[in-house]
Structures are given as structure tokens and as C-alpha cells.
From TrEMBL, chains A, B:
Signal sequence, renumbered to the chain: none
Originating organism: Didymella exigua CBS 183.55
Name of this protein: Histidine--tRNA ligase, mitochondrial
Free-text function comment from the UniProt entry: Catalyzes the aminoacylation of histidyl-tRNA in both the cytoplasm and the mitochondrion.
One term of GO molecular function: histidine-tRNA ligase activity
Enzyme Commission number(s) of this protein: 6.1.1.21
């Protein structure tokens, strides 16, 4: 212990792609957690918290080629475990383990782990928060799906965001389209993945990728003609009127779902930010129906047009996955959900200058002063502090035996404490304490130098001044 | 996807020593987090959140022989990392990495990882929550220490606990005692660890362990005579009057600290649960001054005497560790802190029958009914639900197109929803909805069958009935 020589050999840092959260960032994050939790609970959700690692076999075969990004624990004897990659597979595992639960509306806010190349400025980390809301259960078509999208609206409304787009599509429409164009079964997912890049790449490059993957130029062009459309009801009209697509059974089923969805979104007053975007494909294999992704101008609202969406990436995404639970239990439970990218949302809030939360939130600083022979009045400061704590007033005082008054003011100021409670020996003997709202510069303010109040009224007098002091 | 045969090979469980949190347990846990966070913030603390894994070298050499319990991540290329074992070492690492921070009052609530033998009934898990509060900084003696103990009082008071004991001791007194008795330097920690078992083992066995470790029977008896004392000011009097101990420099320094501490605890009105227990030693190497441990009767309040403390173990523990930050940076920052064992506290709350939190917390269930040709009124139910959500009323409705009224009542009842909002076609045409407080059995209650209100007054009428419905 305490061998200072040894310390010099230390590589003093956090692991690559991870970070500490403190100060204003942590305060901002907590506010965000509170906002989303309030919305989730308003819709009747309860929380599920799962272990940070799962048995390795639970995760395997769920993430396609991204499986290589999974963190494994070292084999130290016993079970083989991996850090969770998302919160969806743990939910499916839980549902499969609890067969008595046939329906579940749950939220989970927790960190997930991916051995990706970190890009901190873009908010891409190896350890990052996900914030998931899912509805599990066999229900009538598209009703829970509509509620999930309503929740997206509620969350961004609560955050005060105006400019965002919920891009949505349907896996059945997408797959039906590919089939109608003549894409062979085994090429559907690779071609789907090429189409998904249309928000980042020009059509010519996407077409090139399709051809490299084995598609003819004609088929690629046909797909290109279809998937570059986006809109609202007009997309449904287009799908219903196109002579080829309107005959495809998968597309037909998808259209039925989208018609229901739009009607339900209207009932929820949640249609305004929606864009039916036939190019949206989403990477994960497990989606089976509606898929969606939320994009925003993010930190560069001055840039107009397509570019604005590129730098930021999606801030929330999800969809319907009806078969995942069945992969574990053999008894499928249909699910639909959304995952909010907390770290990205925070990056954007910060870039917008919204990180103005006070990291520290103390109401009162108890201080003392005196002339020659000043004892420091530590006991008295402690007694007053404990009275304030007992009245639920957030309070600090100097941990020095004999602090100087300017020192104490400086400490209170640098912590942004709005009220000073100042003890003097004479005043205390007379049963009085001085209360001072910090930072009054107006000379005409009668309380500029503080106001002397009866000790017995101290708590009430502090409460009276707290809203003003906190700028409320 | 969806290959049901495959699912039969799955070992459907969570890793050994881990668990899922949901339902009432999760609600109880959240209440507990809220309680401790409120107390911590009242004392001016801010949060620090660190990565779940640290570089392996950060953790090594900090936990003595318990280092074998550390989980390592597999070497997948890149850095070698380990899951955090506690929240103290990450705090010290953070302080060392941020040399501009010379003082810090922080809390952290997070899971830690130990490859221990799980004992679930005792609340000993491999993944479990710790809830830490620490004060870092060079201050006048014992002032932050006293505030940490005040916080212990505040937390258990907020939980409504009466019967608990804060056992405390001082490493300097303990070590001075061992030296005064003639224990050699290299035997001090092993003998200290034997003494620490006095709360679990009878004196004869502890003495036996001491002798096995190389102590003479005389020295062991001398130590036994000293360390089996506990009390308050009388222990200080004993230490000051004992001819041998009162001459030992370490003991003298410890007495000075304890005298200050008791005076400060009096100022904080926080003395009542304190027991100065000369047998308390604590396992961890890094403590340098005051140490403490909180014990309670726990789940077996009917058992009197020593036995009651054995089964439960401590529910909170901590102490002063002045050299840990210096191990990383070479520049020590003195620290004192406490760690609350959330899982154990929850085990006790549950055993006391306090797990009566509603896991689900919904205010209103919107339902509809109709006669022949009933459409289900899904759009109308959605519209009403969205009005209630917009007014921050927690609301659910059936995800069925045409649910039967008894089904809807059953769903509301089983979720413990206190209010039903019932839509009928005729009523809605007349601009009315029915509000019904669930579970009224009193025939004379005029609202037994619900009350018809104007649609425009719906939100106000619901709000009026919510406190009663929630049993407030």
C-alpha cells in the first residue's frame, strides 16, 4: 500500500471505447432517463433488469456477422459467458424462461457491449446505453406497433424536439418487392442490406453493390425505381396500383398492416413525423414485420437536405420480431419494440448547448464568521446543517475547523449554491441567523447583505427564498 | 430463424449467481435507489458512473487474496480487462486520472462482480448491486467521517428501520493494540482477520486461530481481554486509562479521532445507533483509519442476542482509506466512504413483508362495450387513451379489436388499475363517458356502477378520483 514508485507503471485510463460519466453529462443523462422512464410508465410499462452477461450460447446465432463484436468472459472454470450485445435477446430469453408470462410491456435502460471501432465524436462506443421499450404478446394486428410509435412521439416531444423523422417500412413489403423483381431467395437479405445503404450512398453505388452481389442491371434498376419512393398514404396508393407489386402476396399483407397502422397513428394523433420509406431495411435478421428508425438533423441543423441525416445516424430504431422468443422456447411470442440511443441523443443535446444542467444541486451552504479568537463554530454549523437536512434542504458546509469567511463564500459560489446561512456568535446568542441569497448585485435590493431571521423561522425563511434563488 | 428444433438444445437460464430483476422486486429496488439517492443528494453528492470493466492492471493488487474472485474478459486482441470488483477502486482510478479534482463527494449505484460461491438466500450473488457514497479530499480530521455516518442514519431512517447497530472501530487503535500486546508487524493483518471473526465465532475458536497463526496463548488472551469490549464513551475512557494501551502512540492518535467523531456525531444528532466495538477489523487491506459496519436483526427479529446478527451479515460497511488514490497517481487524496448492500437490504425488506409495492402503476384502463354489431370502438379507445397520456395519466387499453367487457375488466383488475374509463356508443354520441373506481363493493356507494361525466370534464373527473382510487 502507498508505494508511490509502483504507481508510475500504471496505465491510467479506461478501456478503449468506454468512458466515465460525471458532472453535467451525468446530470443530462439522468434527466434523459427520467424523461423516457416517465413516458414508458405512462404507457403501463414495468422494468426488467437482466445480468450484464448471459450464457454464451444464448447470444450465439442472433446477430449474424456482428457476432464477432461480442465480448466473451474468460473461461475461469464453470460456464462460458458473454457480455450482452443488446437488450432484445435478454428479453426474449426471459420470456422463454417464464412461460407463464404470455404478455409483457417492459422497459430496460442498461449498458450493452460491442467490440466495434469506437468513434467517440459520433457517439459510437464499445460500452453504451440502450433504452428499450417492447410489447410482447399475441394481439390484434398493428395495435401495439402503433403504441410503440406513439411512444417515440411522446419521448421526443418531452425532449422538446421538433425536427425528426420516423422512417418506417415493412419487411413483408420489402421482401415481396425483391421477389416480385425476381431476386432469388438466398439473395434477399444481401440485397436488402445494399438497399439499406441508400441513406448514406448514392443510387449508382448501391446498384453497383447489388450487381456485385449477383443481380442483373435490369432487376437492380427495377428495385431502384421502387425503393427510392417515400411519403405517406401516397406510398400505399402506389403499392396498390402498381401492376406487379399489387399482385404479390407478401406486399398485400404488408399493405394491410400499413393501412391499419396509419389509421391507428391518426387515432393517437401521432402521424406528423412519419415517413413511409421503401428503402429502409434495417440490418438485424430477426425483424419480421414493421421496421422503423428515427433520424434528426442532429447537431448541424443549418445543413439542409439529405446530408443532414448522414452524420448523426439514427437516434432510435426498432421493429417487430415475432420469432425470437420461439428460438429459445419453441413457443413464439410476437414482440415489437424500440431502442433509443441514449449516448447519441446526449451528443446531440450537448451540441445544441442543452447541457446546462447544474451538475451539483445544493440549496444552502452553512458558514460562520467571527473576529479575534474565532473558534470556527464547527459544532454550530453541524447542528444547523443537520436541522436543514432534517427538513430536506440540500446542505453543505466547510469541512475545516476554522474556515475564513471568504473561503466559505468561494466554496459556495463555485458549487453554485444559491443560499448562504451565515452564523455569527453574537447573532446566534440572540437566537438569530443570517440568510443571504447569493449573487445579488443590485445595490437597492434590501437583502443584498442578507437578512437576519429568528433561528426558529430559519427553515421557513430559507424555503421562502429557494425558488427565487434557484431561478424559478 | 424460427427453427424450433434448435431451441430444445438451449440451456435456458441465467449464469450462476446472477438474476433477473422484475415485478415487485424491481419496484422495491427502485424505491430503495430513490431513497438513498435522495439522501446522498441532500448532502451535496453528485454521481459518477464508471465502465463495468477496467483495465486488469487497475484492479490487481487491491483486494488481497480475494483477487482470485475477479472476472476477467477473454483476450480477444487489444487490452486485458476485468469486471469491476467494487466501486471504490474505480473511484480512486478516476480521482487519479483527474488531478484537477482535489475534492469530490460522489455516489454511485451499480453492479459489481465476484466469482464467489453464490448463496442466494443470504443475498450473496456473483452479480450484485453496491451503492456507494464517498467523500474525497484533505479536510480537518473526522468531519467527513462524521457526515458519512450521519448519512447511514439518514438512509435507515428514511427506510423506517429502528433496530440496527453501526459498529465502529479505528485501524490505528486496533493495530496499536496488537503492537502493545507484542504481535509482530507481519502478523498484524492475519491476527486482525482472526479478531474480525468474533461476531461469528466464540472466543475459544478465535484464540485457536491466533495460536495457529503463531501467537502465544498469553498474547492471544491479552488481545481477547481488550477486543471483546464494546460501548461508547466508556471505551474511550478504558483506552485512556489502561496503563499499556494509553502509552501506545497509535492508540493515542485513534483516541483523538474517536473523541472528535463522537463530538461531531452529537452535533449531527447521530449517536444513537453507534457501538464502539474493539473487535471490528474489516477484511480489506486499504483502510487506514475509522472503519464501520452496519448490522441489523434482519429477517429474524424474534431471535434475541448475538445470534440475530450472524445470519444476515452487514447491510452497509466502509471506512477511511487515505492511500488508495496515491497507489495510482503517487499523489494521495484522503477518502472516506460507505457501501450499502442493496441486495441484502432488499432480502430483509422482503422478509419483513415490505415488498407490497405495486409492480405496475397504471391509473386508468380505457374500455368499451356495445350490443349487437359492436365494432369494438378501437379508434375511440385510442383517442381517449391519447388524451389521457397527454394529461400525464398512466393509461392502458386492450390490444384487441373487439374485446368483451368482462375481458377488459379482468385485464384492468389483474393489473391492479384503479380506474376504468368506459365508452359506450350512445354515451359517446351524447358527449359522455363513464368513470368507475374499481373494486367498490359497498352497495350504498352512489358511484358503485360508475358515474357518467361530460367528455370535456373527463381528465378533471379522473384526477379527482385518482387519490382515493390509489388509496391515498
Amino acid at each position: 500500500m502507498g508505494k508511490d514508485d509502483k504507481s508510475k507503471n500504471f496505465n491510467l485510463k479506461v478501456p478503449k471505447g468506454t468512458r466515465d460519466w460525471t458532472g453535467e453529462d451525468a446530470a443530462l443523462r439522468d434527466r434523459l432517463f427520467e424523461t423516457v422512464t416517465t413516458v414508458f410508465k405512462r404507457h403501463g410499462a414495468t422494468t426488467l433488469d437482466t445480468p450484464v452477461f448471459e450464457l454464451k450460447e444464448i447470444l450465439s446465432g442472433k446477430y449474424g456477422e456482428d457476432s464477432k463484436l461480442i465480448y466473451d468472459l474468460q473461461d475461469q472454470g464453470g460456464e462460458l459467458c458473454s457480455l450482452r450485445y443488446d437488450l432484445t435477446v435478454p428479453l426474449a430469453r426471459w420470456l422463454a424462461m417464464n412461460p407463464s408470462v404470455q404478455s409483457f410491456k417492459r422497459y430496460q435502460i442498461a449498458k450493452v457491449y460491442r467490440r466495434d471501432q469506437p468513434a467517440m465524436t459520433k457517439g459510437r462506443m464499445r460500452e453504451f446505453y440502450q433504452c428499450d421499450f417492447d410489447i410482447a404478446g399475441a394481439y390484434d394486428a398493428m395495435i401495439p406497433d402503433a403504441e410503440v410509435l406513439k411512444i417515440v412521439n411522446d419521448v421526443f416531444k418531452a425532449l422538446g424536439w421538433e425536427a425528426y423523422t420516423i422512417k418506417m417500412n415493412h419487411r413483408k413489403i420489402l421482401d415481396g418487392m425483391f421477389k416480385a423483381a425476381g431476386v432469388k431467395e438466398d439473395l434477399i437479405r444481401p440485397i436488402s442490406s445494399a438497399v439499406d445503404k441508400l441513406d448514406k450512398l448514392p443510387w449508382a453505388e448501391v446498384k453497383q453493390e447489388m450487381q456485385t452481389k449477383g443481380l442483373s442491371a435490369e432487376i437492380a434498376d427495377q428495385i431502384g425505381e421502387w425503393v427510392q419512393r417515400k411519403g405517406g398514404d401516397d406510398i400505399i396508393e402506389f403499392l396498390k396500383s402498381d401492376p406487379v407489386l399489387s399482385q404479390n402476396e407478401d406486399v398485400k399483407k404488408g399493405i394491410q398492416d400499413m393501412e391499419l397502422l396509419f389509421a391507428y397513428l391518426d387515432a393517437f394523433d401521432a402521424r406528423s413525423h412519419v415517413s413511409f420509406d421503401l428503402s429502409l431495411a434495417r440490418g438485424l435478421d430477426y425483424y419480421t414485420g414493421l421496421i422503423y428508425e428515427v433520424v434528426t438533423e442532429g447537431s448541424a441543423p443549418q445543413i439542409k437536405g439529405k446530408q443532414q441525416e448522414v452524420g448523426v445516424g439514427s437516434v432510435a430504431a426498432g421493429g417487430r420480431y415475432d420469432n425470437l422468443v420461439g428460438m429459445f422456447s419453441g413457443k413464439p411470442i410476437p414482440c415489437v419494440g424500440i431502442s433509443f440511443g441514449i449516448d447519441r441523443i446526449i451528443s446531440i443535446l450537448k451540441a445544441r448547448g442543452e447541457s446546462t444542467q447544474r451538475a451539483k444541486d445544493v440549496d444552502a451552504f452553512v458558514m460562520a464568521f467571527g473576529g479575534k479568537g474565532f473558534t470556527g463554530m464547527l459544532t454550530e454549523r453541524m447542528q444547523v446543517a443537520q436541522e436543514l437536512w432534517a427538513s430536506d434542504i440540500k446542505t453543505e458546509f466547510s469541512y475545516k475547523l476554522k474556515p475564513k469567511l471568504p473561503q466559505q463564500f468561494k466554496q459556495a459560489e463555485s458549487a453554485g449554491v444559491p443560499l448562504a446561512v451565515i452564523l455569527g456568535e453574537e447573532e446566534l446568542k440572540a437566537g438569530k441567523v443570517k440568510i443571504k441569497v447569493m449573487g445579488i448585485t443590485d445595490e437597492s435590493n434590501p437583502e443584498k447583505d442578507g437578512v437576519l431571521v429568528d433561528r426558529k423561522d430559519m427553515v421557513a425563511e430559507i424555503r421562502k427564498r429557494l425558488p427565487a434563488a434557484n431561478g424559478v
